[in-house]
Design brief:
Elements lengths: L1 E5 L3 H14 L4 E5 L2 H10 L4 E4 L2 E2 L2 E2 H11 L5 E5 L3 H10 L4 E4 L4 H12 L7 H12 L13 H11 L4 H8 L3 H15 L4 H10 L5
Parallel strand pairs: 1-2, 1-3, 3-6, 6-7
Antiparallel strand pairs: 4-5
Helix pairs in contact: 2-3, 7-9, 7-10, 8-9
Length: 210
């Protein structure tokens, strides 16, 4: 069995490697630190599972997830990230992830998630499952305004609301400052807001940032 672990923190990759190696005898574990490595490895060979972080250098893990599913639609992907479920879980599942787990989960939870996904299932917590059901049953007009944002717009919202400058956001996403400004304008329009301070208040109110 071959598993790809994609995360920009070497210590976290090592911890995951040790947890998986203790549970699965003979498993082959390959590490990737950034988006280009993930895409290269996925295109090069088959994998039983990809563990993917959202916060990768230069690109959002959600963008990488979509590229991965385009290359290997059947490859199961478990998102393992520091971001709370409220922030990205629904978007990840809708983008094709087979599960979502936060990094503060216990080692036993990681194994439970991996086991569930490797046997063809989906792994989400009860709260995420409830949100998925509610999301399907709720009329689009009744959903929070931020759910109308694209993934890139949502990223810009969280970054600006968290205090990052347009220059910093541009660097994080490998786009121009002008493009960031365009996304900011769209976000403000869709959320009926006017300033970055408004974005911060909105994000805090809806638990989109800590």
């Amino acid at each position: 069995m071959r598993i790809l672990v994609a995360d920009d923190h070497p210590m976290f990759r090592l911890a995951v490697r040790e947890i998986l190696a203790r549970h699965y005898r003979g498993v082959e574990i390959v590490e990737a630190a950034g988006a280009p490595e993930v895409i290269e490895q996925v295109a090069k060979q088959d994998w039983a599972l990809l563990l993917l972080d959202i916060n990768l250098p230069g690109r959002s893990g959600l963008d990488v997830l979509r590229d991965v599913k385009a290359i290997r639609p059947e490859l199961p992907v478990l998102m393992v990230t520091s971001y709370a479920e409220e922030q990205f879980a629904l978007r990840a599942i809708k983008a094709g992830a087979s599960g979502y787990l936060t990094k503060d989960a216990a080692a036993a939870d990681l194994i439970k998630a991996v086991e569930k996904i490797l046997t063809g299932g989906k792994f989400v917590t009860a709260s995420v499952a409830d949100r998925l059901v509610n999301n399907l049953q709720t009329d689009s007009q009744d959903k929070p305004a931020h759910e109308t944002l694209s993934d890139r717009e949502f990223h810009v919202l969280r970054a600006l609301a968290g205090g990052k400058t347009a220059k910093e956001v541009a660097h994080d996403l490998s786009i121009s400052i002008k493009t960031v400004s365009t996304y900011r304008t769209r976000v403000l329009e869709k959320l009926a807001l006017k300033t970055n301070a408004d974005l911060t208040r909105y994000a805090l109110q809806h638990r989109l940032i800590e």
